[in-house]
């Protein structure tokens, strides 16, 4: 509740602008070709590295007849990358608000797609304040946990992309959306994974965050998260392995933990602290030979490429306390690699994987194939067809 009260000015601004600008947006929609039949695409507003970017790029390269525009902060390090493919609009600008109200399709990776403020407009939607465009939810990653705020009718969207068969079955049975909203299309960013898969002798460590209430700042030093990964970055056996096998370890925590990245101190120049401003997640995944994560859904991307995964679940109680409740997916039952609880077991698992030339064991490959019965480069195409049907009402 306190969090919502702090954001009250944002909600009021959204309500005011939605009310005042709606008539102008309606006029532009009728009279200005830039606003007519518009597909507005966005991720978080300050980036272009995820399903939104890859879908926008697909539209510009394969479906140029679509009037598409990407929302991004002009100061974003990704701004130039996305603008080379097509039209962009500045995040939270007046033009963004007008396009948001005028667009036929509002397409994004997060709740309340393409909105000037994702969570504020998510809550405004609950009281009936929303734009006219169809809501197309591309997802930010495959769902594995019980995410209550994404269930219907809390989240109201017209299309909900699912990335895997087990996820699709779970969403359809548990999330309560009307029939046909959730579709198993695959995630748009998967298209590029197999095209650019180029292992470069890197072990990628990519843990997720622990929720907005997890200790931050100086208190972060006292957390199990910091102590665990700082210890790993100093592990002598691991460093020895990197040196002997001419490998690199790349440490890239979730973007919500990146503000604490400078607190970590690696004990070898073969360990890289990767900032989100300089390193792209998908590029790291394509370059790595294996992935170490805790609970991040990024392991689905690694699995899509057939790369081995190790789950380092050292603080499950904290994760469930500060973040998401368990859903349908269990790493022990469904995961694409071993689950370890201690640093010693983790290093042992890494050694085994390296000795095995980074090949996925057969039992994990069978789980992978069950989760992804379809692995191809047509995910964007399937999403496009689904959105086109949505537009035509079929």
Descriptive report:
The protein has 394 residues and is an alpha/beta fold. The chain has helices at residues 2-6, 8-31, 51-62, 79-83, 94-102, 118-126, 165-174, 190-195, 224-232, 236-244, 281-287, 299-304, 316-322, 331-334, 343-355, 362-371, 379-392; strands at 38-42, 67-72, 88-90, 105-108, 134-137, 145-146, 159-162, 182-184, 202-205, 248-251, 271-273, 288-293, 309-312, 325-326, 339-340. It folds into two domains: 2-186 and 377-392, CDP-glycerol glycerophosphotransferase, N-terminal domain (Rossmann fold, 3-Layer(aba) Sandwich); 193-371, Rossmann fold. 40% of the residues lie in helices and 14% in strands. It has a seven-stranded parallel sheet, sandwiched between helices. The chain has a six-stranded parallel sheet with strand order 11-10-9-12-13-15. Strands 6-14 form a two-stranded antiparallel ribbon.
Ends apart, CA distance between termini: 41 Å
CATH C-level label of the largest domain: Alpha Beta
Q: What fraction strand?
A: 5-15%
Spatial strand order of the main sheet: 3-2-1-4-5-7-8
Class by alpha and beta content: alpha/beta
User: At the fourth CATH level, what is the homologous superfamily of the largest domain?
Assistant: CDP-glycerol glycerophosphotransferase, N-terminal domain
* Uncertain runs: 1-5
Average pLDDT works out at 93
**CATH fold name of the largest domain:** Rossmann fold
Q: Work out the number of β strands.
A: 15
How much helix, percentage-wise, in residues? 40-55%
Please report the number of helical segments. Answer: 17
Bulk shape: globular
Overall domain count: 2
Under the CATH scheme, the architecture of the largest domain is 3-Layer(aba) Sandwich
Determine Rg (CA atoms, Å). 21 Å
């Amino acid at each position: 509740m306190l969090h919502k009260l702090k954001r009250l000015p944002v909600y009021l601004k959204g309500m005011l602008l939605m009310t005042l600008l709606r008539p102008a947006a309606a006029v532009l929609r009728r009279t200005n070709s830039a606003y007519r039949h518009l597909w507005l695409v966005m991720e978080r507003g300050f980036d272009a590295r995820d399903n939104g970017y890859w879908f926008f790029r697909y539209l510009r390269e394969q479906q140029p007849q679509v009037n598409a525009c990407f929302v991004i902060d002009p100061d974003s390090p990704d701004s130039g990358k996305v603008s080379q493919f097509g039209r962009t609009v500045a995040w939270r600008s007046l033009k963004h608000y007008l396009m948001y109200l005028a667009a036929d399709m509002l397409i994004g990776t997060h709740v309340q797609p393409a909105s000037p403020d994702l969570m504020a407009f998510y809550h405004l939607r609950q009281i009936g304040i929303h734009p006219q465009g169809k809501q197309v939810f591309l997802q930010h990653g495959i769902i594995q946990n019980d995410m209550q705020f994404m269930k219907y009718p809390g989240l109201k969207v017209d299309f909900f992309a699912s990335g895997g068969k087990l996820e699709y079955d779970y969403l359809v049975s548990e999330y309560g959306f009307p029939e046909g909203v959730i579709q198993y299309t695959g995630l748009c960013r998967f298209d590029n994974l197999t095209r650019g898969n180029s292992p470069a002798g890197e072990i990628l460590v990519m843990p997720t965050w622990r929720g907005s209430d997890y200790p931050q700042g100086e208190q972060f030093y006292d957390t199990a998260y910091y102590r665990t990964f700082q210890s790993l970055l100093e592990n002598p056996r691991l460093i020895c392995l990197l040196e002997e096998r001419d490998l690199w370890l790349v440490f890239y925590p979730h973007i919500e933990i990146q503000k604490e990245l400078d607190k970590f101190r690696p004990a070898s120049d073969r360990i890289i602290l990767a900032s989100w401003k300089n390193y792209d997640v998908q590029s790291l995944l394509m370059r790595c030979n294996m992935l170490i994560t805790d609970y991040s859904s990024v392991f689905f991307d690694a699995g899509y490429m057939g790369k081995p995964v190790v789950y380092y679940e050292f603080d499950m109680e904290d994760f469930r306390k500060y973040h998401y409740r368990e859903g349908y997916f269990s790493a022990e039952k469904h995961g694409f690699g071993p689950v370890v609880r201690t640093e010693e077991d983790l290093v042992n698992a890494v050694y085994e994987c390296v000795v095995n030339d980074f090949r996925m064991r057969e039992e994990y490959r069978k789980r992978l194939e069950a989760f992804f019965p379809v692995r191809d480069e047509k995910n964007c195409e399937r999403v496009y067809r689904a959105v086109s049907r949505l537009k035509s009402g079929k």
